């Protein structure tokens, strides 16, 4: 098969690596890709939302399958665009329809979906300029902390956890009345703050069946000790020792199955990955968010743990045969550390030469995120630059291997956390 992968981050390099191992993958294209994906297939310089250019390229390159990495093309309807065009309808697009991708594209839509299908989540109300005054009194009556969420996509920045009513009211005004996140915050979801441990769960959904991938956790804060600004993710681990059989069953019964049934009941066409951002409080799961795609950097630790041929999983997804698949999971701990450009998640410099990329280790992989090739050299091209992922007999070993890997690599102002997976490092046999 000829496969087109859309995206350019660490998630996409990990997917490109996994796709390139498949016996079904005859040719791989990545749009636009990065310096890492370039070593595994052909990078196409096409914007992820330029559906017309993607269509032309798919026809030229006789593409059979498209795997969509990021949310933006999904929310903007890439799947419908290909399915609705008779010239491209034969291409299997892995990713939900725009209507279903609204589970990520609109927080208010996701909350009403959860309410309708009795899926545990934080109590909430939604507000716009029209019922702004009601919003002000609602916020004043709620306990602190309180969470404000821009309804639409806001490049991962649209969630604000407010520690006082004064802060919440100021943010509420900025979002609704002063377009802090453009039209994305015309509507705001105000919700209760959930305590607990956060985790990520990703499933493949084929329209009626689901297949649960190994659970994971990402580390969002820039600094060690989970302090400082929020980022796209500074590292990830999988599996999680606290995700016991009992908790797994609760998540299946209360979250995954009602979600998949809800998609069917609400006529939301869904063939792709679905991401559940969960908060576990006293062994009870609550959904914080849905994403209509794989997580990043969760994908980088999950892919090396899955032995199955990924194209077989994707074909089963497209053809509604996921119930026939059994996952074959490596019984090891995976831990990924993200190396970022100094200054990230604020301003940072791009274009710095990266040294040490020829180093290889048996139990580790190096995925590129924000990299590009310039004059034959690999240079930094984003905030998150590289992700070193290792498999170990326990988290401590995996952490040491990934840390050692990054010690071999250098670019000016490179920074990474050395405490990823800290809470799981002393546990054996996870
Ligand atoms: P999101 O953009 O929806 O992923 O939210 C960003 C982060 O905000 C989440 O990963 C959580 O850490 C945090 N968050 C969102 N909603 C809540 C909530 N209701 N209670 C506690 N933390 C939350
Ligand atoms: N790591 C969380 C996400 O991809 O949204």
Mean pLDDT: 96
Q: Estimate the global geometry from the Cα principal axes.
A: globular
Percent of residues in helices: 25-40%
Q: What is the tally of beta strands?
A: 23
Class per helix and strand makeup:
alpha+beta
In DSSP terms, counting alpha (H) and pi (I) runs of 4 or more, how many helices? 12
Largest sheet: 6 strands, antiparallel
Name the bound molecules: adenosine monophosphate, glycine
Distance between the termini: 37 Å
How would you describe the overall organization of this protein?
The longest helix has 21 residues, at 245-265. The protein starts with a strand and ends in a 15-residue tail after the last strand. Helices cover 28% and strands 27% of the residues. The protein is globular and about 60 Å long. It is α+β, with helices and mostly antiparallel strands and 430 residues long. It has helices at residues 10-20, 51-60, 71-75, 78-83, 98-105, 107-116, 132-141, 165-176, 245-265, 298-302, 310-319, 395-407; strands at 2-7, 27-32, 42-43, 65-68, 92-94, 124-127, 146-150, 159-162, 188-192, 197-205, 210-212, 217-218, 221-223, 227-230, 235-238, 272-281, 284-291, 333-341, 364-368, 371-374, 377-380, 384-392, 414-415. Helix 5 (98-105) packs across helix 6 and helix 7 packs antiparallel against helix 8 (165-176). Bound molecules: adenosine monophosphate and glycine.
């Amino acid at each position: 098969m000829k496969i087109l992968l859309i995206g350019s981050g660490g998630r996409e390099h990990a997917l490109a690596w996994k796709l390139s191992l498949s016996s079904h993958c005859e040719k791989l294209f990545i749009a636009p890709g990065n310096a890492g994906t370039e070593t595994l297939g052909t990078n196409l310089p096409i914007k992820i939302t330029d559906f017309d250019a993607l269509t032309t390229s798919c026809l030229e390159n006789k593409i059979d399958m498209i795997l969509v990495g990021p949310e933006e093309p999904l929310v903007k309807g890439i799947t419908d665009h290909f399915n609705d065009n008779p010239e491209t309808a034969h291409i299997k697009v892995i990713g939900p329809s725009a209507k279903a991708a609204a589970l990520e594209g609109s927080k208010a839509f996701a909350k009403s979906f959860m309410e309708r299908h009795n899926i545990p989540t934080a109590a909430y109300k939604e507000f716009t300029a029209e019922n702004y005054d009601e919003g002000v009194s609602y916020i004043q009556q709620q306990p602190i902390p309180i969470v404000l969420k821009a309804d639409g996509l806001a490049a991962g920045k649209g969630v604000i956890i407010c520690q006082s009513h004064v802060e919440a009211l100021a943010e509420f005004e900025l979002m609704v009345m002063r377009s802090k996140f453009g039209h994305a915050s015309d509507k705001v979801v105000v919700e209760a703050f959930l305590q607990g441990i956060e985790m990520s769960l990703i499933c493949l959904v084929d329209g009626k069946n689901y297949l649960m991938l190994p659970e994971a956790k990402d580390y969002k804060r820039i600094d060690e000790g989970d302090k400082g600004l929020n980022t796209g993710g500074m590292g990830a681990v999988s599996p999680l020792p606290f995700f016991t059989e009992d908790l797994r069953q609760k998540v299946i019964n209360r979250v995954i199955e009602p979600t998949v049934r809800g998609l069917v009941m609400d006529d939301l066409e869904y063939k792709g990955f679905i991401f559940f951002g969960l908060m576990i409080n006293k062994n009870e799961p609550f959904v914080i968010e849905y994403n209509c795609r794989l997580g990043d950097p969760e994908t980088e630790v999950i892919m090396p743990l899955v032995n199955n041929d990924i194209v077989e999983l994707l074909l089963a997804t497209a053809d509604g045969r996921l119930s026939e698949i059994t996952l074959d999971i490596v019984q090891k701990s995976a831990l990924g550390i993200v190396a970022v450009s100094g200054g990230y998640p604020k301003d940072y410099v791009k274009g710095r030469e990266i040294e040490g990329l020829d180093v290889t280790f048996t139990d580790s992989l190096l995925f590129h995120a924000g990299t590009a090739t310039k004059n034959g050299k690999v240079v930094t091209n984003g905030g998150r630059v590289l992700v070193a992922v290792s498999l170990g007999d326990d988290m401590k070993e995996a952490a040491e291997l990934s840390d050692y890997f990054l010690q071999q690599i250098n670019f000016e102002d490179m920074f990474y956390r050395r405490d990823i997976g800290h809470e799981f490092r002393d546990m054996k046999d996870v």
